[in-house]
Amino acid sequence: MAERQLTDAALRLKLLLPAIGSSGDVHPMLALAIALQRRGHRATVLTNPIFQELIEGQGVGFLPVGTIDDARAAIADPDLWHPRKGFEVVARRAILPAMVEVYRHIERHADAATIVAASGIAFGARIAQERLGVPTATVHLQPSIIRSLVDQGMAGNVRISASQPMWFKRAFFRVADWVLIDRALKRPVNAFRATLGLPPVDRLMHRWIHSPQLVIGFFPDWFARPQSDWPPETYLVGFPLWDGGHTPLPSDARAFLEAGEPPIVFTPGSAGATMHRYFRESVEVARELGVRAMLITNFPEQVPKDLPPHVKTFGYLPFSDVLPHTALLVYHGGIGTLAQALKAGIPHLVVPNGHDQFDNAWRIEQLGLGRSIPQTRYRARPVVKAIRAILGDGEGRARCRDYASRMDSDAALTRACELIEGLSLGRCAPTEAP
């Protein structure tokens, strides 16, 4: 009887899914929304209108957060991918502007059947959980956002390992919060909380961002081993893979893939709009190696005008269709692109700029699936050397195929849905205003 009651309750759920960021941040949440609707729920994604047509085209509800001009301004900011300045850009242009809008959407649309599943930087969802008592799951797409004083992996471009003394690791995160994170976020977040009668919070990215009810890691435990000091309610479900539904591969891209040897793909990510040097060096790499290459970017004005005949530029392409037919991916280390490369079973050359990308690159190297070269050192000569080593590593290619067999997007989404449905058994108590 209890199982039947849970099923009946789950069928009535209304899901609100705030997603802040670029395609790599929004696509997994859209995949989750689609999976939830297939289980009989109503799902609505809260994100920038630049994704509205895509989301509504999948039959999923949409609520706007910010404007298309906001998204374009963030993408065009030259500091977005700076190793040190990038976080301030994300805070100023994405996290803080979205906070109040996300909260107000939840306040306006939540009812007794509502559950929120929000990306970690959707602060408005955490505040709504505290103030309104809406059951909420935090969904983290990458392991670097979950801090650990045991073994963090990479914090930015700094290794935080189990062998380092605890005093150093505590001091490192405290200084990072004081100098960078709380300096950008604390005052405006607490000012908004005060208008709702909520007490101030400190060190927002340390523990507060995680829902005390449920934290879902959209990555597997073989990619990031759970640490003993992670939130106890954390569950790792695996990578969800979604890159545009069943959009046909454009004919020019298909023809290029079929015209010769598997090419190397170079891409700085969907939001990489200020990567002129990356493309200039990448073209020189393809020229020196004499290989076929695909340059994939939403901003083709970055690409040099005179390309060798074996190098072609393409706009956005569904990586699930492209990557299985390629030899190597040279990319920024975004978690969504990384997951697609894992599924394709091809080796990686990661070129991290900032944010979670250094940690993702480090984990790829630890698994023996490729190498990394920071964007600041991305030059044709060392890249050519690295690519030759990667392509000549037969054992590495075998490991890529092995890990590809471990990828199960459907299982990841099913487990995430089950965990979210479990929140329907009870609602958290809101924080009373004084």
Structural features, described:
With 434 residues, the protein is an alpha/beta fold. It is built from 16 helices and 15 strands. The protein has helices at residues 2-10, 23-38, 52-57, 68-76, 86-109, 123-132, 166-195, 204-208, 251-258, 276-289, 319-322, 335-344, 357-366, 380-391, 394-404, 409-422, and strands at residues 14-18, 42-47, 61-64, 114-119, 136-140, 153-155, 158-160, 214-217, 234-236, 264-267, 293-296, 311-314, 328-331, 348-350, 370-372. Strands 3-2-1-4-5-8-9 form a 7-stranded parallel sheet, with helices on both faces. A 6-stranded parallel sheet has the order 12-11-10-13-14-15, with helices on both faces. The longest helix has 30 residues, at 166-195. It is globular and about 65 Å long. It starts with a helix and ends in a 12-residue tail after the last helix.
Radius of gyration from the alpha-carbon trace, in angstroms: 22 Å
Give me the secondary-structure category.
Answer: alpha/beta
With strands numbered from the N-terminus, the spatial order across the biggest sheet is 3-2-1-4-5-8-9
Rounded mean pLDDT score: 91
Q: Count of DSSP E strands?
A: 15
Helix percent reads 40-55%
Q: How much strand content do the residues show?
A: 5-15%
Number of H/I helices = 16
Shape annotation: globular
In the predicted model, the low-confidence regions spanning at least 5 consecutive residues are 1-7
